[in-house]
What does this fold into?
Amino acid sequence: MKKPSKLALLTKHTLSLEAAKQVATAAEKFARKKGWNVVISIVDDGGHLMYLARMDGAQIGSVEVAQAKARTALAFKRPTKVWSEALKGGRMQILGLPGATPIEGGLPLVLKGEFLGAIGVSGVTSEQDGEVALAGLAALG
It folds into this structure.
């Protein structure tokens, strides 16, 4: 009788709730400094919501948009700005990608080459949303 072989399992970093809060807090601090009322969404590496902050005065519609931006950034492993720029360049087929939200403001959260999750921001212009997301990303170091 053969001995069962060992499974080759991977070890990976995981986004903790505390880290998600730190990213969101950094983004919120930046938005407050600019006077922007936004929604900040943090998703884990499976695209599931970990943390959401809706600043006072932020539009309710931005709750869903911020989550969609975060999930897009994670699913495609790139900033949502890439899809926005592609549309500006005339690549309309981007609109047919399942789960793609082609609006700037979503960034993957990456540490040592591992995708931990993503941040999505909505509430001001897409460029401003992108600035807020970038401020949050900076909290990862």
The chain has a mean pLDDT of 95.
